[in-house]
């Protein structure tokens, strides 16, 4: 119960002053001159003033409010090391039990670091969770905060937090921990394929080591070198990027006896391999309507350096024109097909026939070039079926099909074969999903027999139209029509000539995304996504090895012809190994080299400054001699806002004086007959004294 007096005047304050001030002056004058009845007049005036002021006794019924205490529990991955999780659970249960004894505390438990979002798992952010716990609490009601953590907090302020209450930190782990870790100091994001890339790294240890440490260097899961590093010093490293696209460079060191964890004994760098400009040699033979189609396409590709020769004047042509008057460049056959043939990534013969421009021996060089890893494309026309066909040269060993000598002049829609619907070169071509396909017709097909490799497109009478084949280490493509220019010119609406031609060229040059059998994996947030390209009907399940060594299986579901997808939500940050059949892939899930694992030694230093700034404390749950998970919890003591909030074996939390008003009862002092009686008594006494 809270009693108080409140004045509720019957008239306004100016009127009160107008009435009472003159009467008060008269009463004071009477007292000064000691007139008869002056005292009674003064008492009567006081009674009148009291009646007009109308004093009221107020009795307020209030309910005291509780102080809000935040219990912030660190559930980040570094808390899974050793006995920290057990210590955390025991401390949480003990604190909840002790705080439950005090009715003046409203305890809010917040577990931080459990989010599956990768961007939220990069760091341990306990003060963000603390701010969220107190967002709806006025400052006067904040009783304090207790953090249960290993001390590796990455958003700790340098000074006091934004609330005026004690902050206490209870540190898990032990103070005799040791750890050794490795990290990249300098790791470029991009590198040229086949070229050395300079990087630097450092091995860091909590102990003063001087002996060299062996560092295993792996690229895309394959160990390429073993380096010897000096602990604490920045060490140079040079690796060669093997492939275009995403490459994973991994550094690993052995686990030391007694080391806290080997989670940070690996460092990962994700490097995107970039090819230098691809060199393509285009040789155009007999002039035809689509002669510039390949040239325009390749010239428009910024990643291609094109060397194009058009044979306009074959050697047998003799018209008497002096050589010095010809504006033609002599065909540098020896330079291109002997000295620099290895420098080209792709050679294209566009309607080329053997007309003694190339010595017969050079065709053998081209076949050898393909066998050793080169790429050859034959864009065939009627000349391929003629007497001067390049199939009648030593190049025949590299060709996927021999001509029958037949040229079929018949209108047809180019269509994908069953293989073509799954092959990356032709899969999903714009317009291929309808029947007939949503593109224009062609009017010529070159007949071949005994085709090798994969027939991915068919022409008139279901004859092979596009062949893709592997020869030794190289690749060969054959387009058995010279009508692709109809698509480029927009005949009957045209067709996807750019898409098709570019895919053919890049498949021949071994673009990884266009491989028929390919397994890739990537991390999207905390989800591992798997993509399998295959010509098979069902690739089966994918096997996954997590960073901790656990084994998982994921079913791959068909997404489109030739493409199967799978995904799995994960809780571990690190490098995942994925296998399907004979193919393997690596993927890193979560932030690369996250601060969460940069330093896993439990520490009191990060939270000492903000805790002491608020009058709180930082202490370990386990004693310095403890080897297990035994913990010692401090006692909880409620303290006033100005009192000390920490002791040797106790921590204090502040109580609040705030309350909620539930009801108010009023008792007027001069209300009703009592007030009237007192007023009449005072007036009557005054008149009685005046009348004597």
TrEMBL record:
Q: Does the keyword Electron transport apply?
A: no
Q: Which residues cross the membrane?
A: 12-32, 39-58, 669-688
Q: Does the keyword Lipid metabolism apply?
A: no
Q: Give the highest taxon in the source lineage.
A: Bacteria
Identify the keywords attached in UniProt to this record, alphabetized: Membrane, Transmembrane, Transmembrane helix
Q: Which PANTHER family match?
A: BLL2462 PROTEIN
The name this protein goes by in its record: Glutamine amidotransferase domain-containing protein
Question: Which organism does this sequence originate in?
Answer: Mesorhizobium sangaii
Write the lineage as a comma-separated list. Answer: Bacteria, Pseudomonadati, Pseudomonadota, Alphaproteobacteria, Hyphomicrobiales
